[in-house]
Amino acid sequence: MSDEAPDTIHSAGLPGLQAPPPVGSSALPAGTYEGTTVFVTGAGTGLGKAIASEFARLGASIVIASRKAEHLDAGVEAIEALGGAALGVECDIREADSIEAAFDAAEERLGRPSVLVNNAAANFPVPAEDMSPNAWRTVVDITLNGTFLCTREFGRRHLAAGTPASVLSVGASYAWTGGPGFAHSAAAKAGVKNMTETLAVEWGPYGIQLNALVPGLFPHEDMTEDIAGNLAATSDKDACQPALRVGRRQELGWAATFLCSPYARFISGHTLVVDGANWQRRTLTMPPVVTVRDQMGRGPFEP
């Protein structure tokens, strides 16, 4: 899927927000991350890989953490294709011991990571009344607990060494608004946002900054079936966005590299939404309410 699709002029003749510069461009100086190791969870696919790629273009060595060997291989291949150094480490972010081992391997091969990107998460749509206890636990365990455990391990190493560092966690706009059909993920992402704000205060005196990044609609080839299905059911994705276009993956990567860069050191405890104002959209007249069950094509609830 191309990240350089042309601007769309819609039937109303409105241009929407301009397209970004092409892939490979950057607002930061070349070599901004030379000598820096960046640890990215879930960097073998999708938006995690796009974020990791932008760090690599600026000179960073990338640690790709994932449970799946095929994702590790894909991530390493993508970074090396850019001429960057990459290391794939098997890591289950639900397990503190697995995280510790992954950071040990990263330090041994590439040096202590000074940037952590918490990208890995779990999600799928389901009405709350149909959600099993295991489904709730799984999403919260990966998305919230996994993000905390990775952040804790990363932070402890820098606190012990007295070195500055940056943490960036991928969030979601329904951390503010709630997310019908995503009660598990919305609750977990709200926890990630709050954790970011809390630890920014706790660890700021030690030189550790924490921020979060919320992506809007960034179509890519690694989307889950439910997200791809929802997009397929939308007749014109661009017309549903205030920007009159969807995001290009490099735009998310540029935001990530800025927030973790020396040029953003005084930004901490902040959640940056990169979605062309889509999450703030409101209508003058209220549309009819359609239940989550009806939106998902499910019949009446049966215990």
Quick structural overview:
Helix content is 39%, strand content 13%. It is α/β, with parallel strands linked by helices. Strand 4, helix 4 (133-161) and strand 5 (165-170) form a beta-alpha-beta unit.
Task: Round the mean pLDDT to the nearest integer and report it.
Answer: 92
Shape: globular
CATH class: Alpha Beta
CATH architecture: 3-Layer(aba) Sandwich
User: What is the element string, with H for helices and E for strands?
Assistant: EHEHEHEHEHHEHHEH
| Cα distance spanning the termini | 42 Å
Outline the low-pLDDT stretches.
Answer: 4-11
Oligomer: single chain
Tell me the domain tally.
1
Strand order of the largest sheet: 3-2-1-4-5-6-7
Supply the CATH superfamily name. Answer: NAD(P)-binding Rossmann-like Domain
Please describe the biggest sheet, giving its number of strands, its sense, and whether it closes into a barrel.
7 strands, parallel
SS-based structural class?
alpha/beta
Q: So how many helices?
A: 9
Q: In the CATH scheme, what's the topology name?
A: Rossmann fold
What proportion strand?
A: 5-15%
Helix content: 25-40%
What's the β-strand tally? 7
Computed CA radius of gyration, to the nearest angstrom: 19 Å
